[in-house]
Amino acid sequence: MLYGVAGIGDSALYSLMGTFALFFFTTVAGINPAVAGTIVALGAVWDVVSGSVVGYISDRTKTKMGRRKPFLLVASFPLAVFCSFIFIVFDAPQGLRYIYYIFMFIAFWTGYSVFFVPYTAWGAELTDSYEERTELRGIVYIFYSIGAAFGTVLPTIIVDSLMQWGLTVEGGWLSAGIFVGVVSAAAIFITGWFVNDTPGLASAAAEDHPASAAGNEESPKADGKRGSKLHVAVDIVRNYGQVLKFRPARFIVLTSMFYLVSNSIMMADRMYFYTFNMGLSAKEISMVMLFQNVISVLLVPPLIRINRVLDKRTLCIGGIGMSAACMTLYGFTGISNIPNLLVLTFVYGIGSICYWQLIPSMLYDVCDADRLDNDTDRAGLIISIQGLTESVSEAIGFQILGILLQFTGFSSEAAVQNAATMSCMYVSFTFIPALFAVFAIIMMVRYPITRAKHAEIIKKLSERNQ
Fold first, then answer.
1. Lesser CB count within 10 Å: N end or C end of the chain?
2. Rounded CA separation 275/285 (Å)
3. Do the domain assignments include residue 209?
4. Which range among 64-78, 200-214, 327-341 shows the weakest confidence by mean pLDDT?
5. What angle do CA 99, 385, 54 make, to 5 degrees?
């Protein structure tokens, strides 16, 4: 249970940035949409680099506290600081403002990588059961939903309430950033402090095969270079290449990339769509966000039960397929009122929970298959590829939306946007996310690890380690 608490921080930070960062930059900080999209994208791209390094290092870390736990403790406080600083309206010449926000985003995503990669990899070492991994992710997802409420529901309430009490909109957003940052840091610290980092399944396998841990075969040439920055970089790239040639990893990465582009565009666009297309108030927006989080929690137990009958792959295809079909349908029929919006939110939530609960569990299964086929222990590296995928996908999604808003003439000063911008916001909430979700389904169909296949993998690993 305590392992799941850090999920509050993970989801709150991810949801806050995914939902409000672009909106804050364009409507409060006064940055044009294309540049704002580039700033957010640069931060996400940097996360690719930092996540890769963190995954590589955490697989090789040996401390009295374990190899994952120290990273959570180190990351918690800086995340609170940089999350707050992102939501400061920096009053300076335009070029200097751009530099400030780029630096803050890079600093934030560095801290996020230091936490996220070891935390997620830790889960692969808690159980090797096909069903228990889904149940574990179900517990984490409940905490994720709580975190999502902190990251998506409360910010608009905080800003609106503080403005009613006389604070400026700039002060309201800074307060929201501080609040989410502090809550997230506390949740991450609690898990890092109270959960024991035991050697775990993957680590035990690594001890049985020390020469191949994380794909690091011993050789005189390697010994001569060990510890050098160049060797580390080359080793990371080599291991990434090996993992991406591995079919289960390749297709789960492609599934994640397409789904997360879909998710990033919809998450970033929804504040624009709710505000300008539907004319919702801050309270109404918070209500819709809260509805989605409540639905996510309620769907966890049914999903766990269904997973006892159906493969994770089948569930994922079905859930994402339902959300893609619903977005396409409303793209044609229109979203004219809050009940229609809640229906779309509910069905989209089915696809969302299938992705966020099942994909991490499937990644753990990929780690097992990698240990069997390649005789390696590189869970951190494999999880870092998921972090890399999330970052690249966010960068693509934010950049697409930022360019579309800029191209169609979005104005931060206008209470009512022009027809082209309104259409852009609409298709970015329906057709465009649906298209990328369909691509994700096509990739998931190619994913090869079923329940029976995973049972065979675990059996062979047990036999080998006897």
1. C
2. 8
3. no
4. 200-214
5. 65
